[in-house]
Design a protein that fits this description.
Layout (H helix, E strand, L loop, with lengths): L16 E7 L6 E7 L4 E8 L7 E4 L3 E4 L2 E8 L6 H6 L8 E2 H11 L4 H22 E7 L2 E8 L1 H22 L12 H12 L10
Antiparallel strand pairs: 1-2, 2-3, 3-6, 4-5, 7-9, 8-9
Helix pairs in contact: 2-3, 4-5
Length: about 210
């Protein structure tokens, strides 16, 4: 099952990065994403502390930034961008369609960001085809042809998201991430339970910018 890495870094000496406006998987509204030349997609989330909850962060070893506005890129599977389109095809969800049909349909639906969407598909095509099978039922066109056809499935989508949450939670726990809501004296079971609830919202995070 194709699952995006839980924690990722972009090496700017190896990958070029550009900002694209693409549909957000939670509601289809345009949001900022980073697309690398290697075909990796990152959702851009904005975090800003205000009021009495302000603070500072270290940038590197010597720079202290007061009341920072932090932009965080979270790697997501490119197929996430297709979810608003797939979910909107209620009248056609009984039909199996080709990968090309899915992309052409989404390109038509995403008229306000068509060029950005096509560019993402060009760089992410291989991953998109593999990931589409994670959220769709598939079947072969014929025994002699390798091409598959796809039909969107909410059950497969839910199962795939559950795997992402579980793997991300496991990696976060093993990395020793600290959550102030839990506290240093919390038991391992409590940390795991709180972290699992926190991670469940990540696939459709609304800290977008």
């Amino acid at each position: 099952m194709e699952v995006p890495p839980s924690f990722s870094r972009i090496d700017l000496t190896q990958e070029k990065v550009e900002v694209l406006r693409l549909p957000h998987p939670s509601d289809g509204k345009l949001a900022n994403f980073l697309l690398t030349s290697a075909g990796r997609l990152f959702e851009v989330n904005s975090f800003e502390r205000s009021g009495y909850n302000r603070g500072s962060i270290f940038v590197g070893d010597e720079t202290l930034v007061r009341d920072p506005h932090v932009l965080l890129g979270t790697e997501v599977a490119p197929v996430m961008v297709l979810l608003p389109y797939l979910a909107s095809q209620k009248g056609n969800q009984d039909r199996f369609v080709t990968f090309t049909d899915v992309i052409l349909g989404a390109s038509t639906e995403y008229s306000d960001c068509r060029d950005a969407f096509k560019h993402m598909v060009t760089l992410c095509r291989d991953g998109l085809e593999k990931q589409l099978a994670c959220v769709c039922e598939t079947k072969a066109v014929s025994k002699d042809v390798e091409e598959k056809v796809y039909r969107f499935s909410l059950d497969r989508l839910a199962a795939w998201l559950a795997v992402i949450v579980r793997k991300t939670s496991e990696q976060a726990i093993s990395s020793g991430l600290y959550f102030t809501e839990v506290g240093e004296c919390a038991t391992e079971d409590l940390r795991r339970e709180r972290l699992s609830r926190f991670m469940f919202v990540l696939p459709f995070c609304d800290g977008r910018c």
